[in-house]
Amino acid sequence: MKPRRSVSATLHSLVLLSGLASPAWLLAEDETFDQRAERCLNYVAAIDIDWPLGHRSGFVRDSHSIAQARFAVGRDDKARQAIRRSLAIPWETYYDPEFPLWATVDCYLRWKDTPGKYTPELAEQTRRHLAQPIPRPARRGHD
Question: Which domain range does residue 95 map to?
């Protein structure tokens, strides 16, 4: 059973991160782009990731995007925590591993060289995770 909150938060984070739209409450006519970007980052960084390990909610896929928002606003410990929880989930858990794979690589490449973001241990854990073979699930009804 998926928590209703996770679906709503996931949709909001995807919409905000993609830049396709913004909720009306997020827009203010007298805001600058930088103020609006800061508000969006703070909104996404505040999303609470509380899934149990192995849970197949959207948070699993979005955890690296949320971690990037947390890195951007200086919540480095919470970002590393989200990354560690995501890396603990094996690729076999996903039906579509391409999406979390892309987010994992993007987060790692974007932040690994920024001082204080990725610890050497977390960087090594990420590299080991990315080097694992990614199984392809059997196609349902198309074989």
Answer: 4-131
Answer yes or no: is 142 within a domain.
Answer: no
pLDDT reported for residue 68: 93
| Residue 21 located in a structural domain | yes
Do 36 and 18 touch, CB atoms closer than 8 A? Answer: no
Alpha-carbon torsion, ordered 49, 52, 58, 60, to 10 deg: 80
Is 140 inside any structural domain? no
Number of domain units in the chain: 1
Compute the distance between CA of residue 66 and CA of residue 59 in angstroms, rounded to an integer.
9
Q: How far apart are CA 143 and CA 131, in angstroms?
A: 28
- The answer to whether residue 88 sits within a structural domain is yes
**What percentage of residues in the chain have a pLDDT greater than 70?**
64
Q: pTM above 0.90?
A: no
Q: pLDDT, tens digit, for every residue of 84-125? A: 988 887 777 766 777 788 889 999 999 999 999 999 999 999
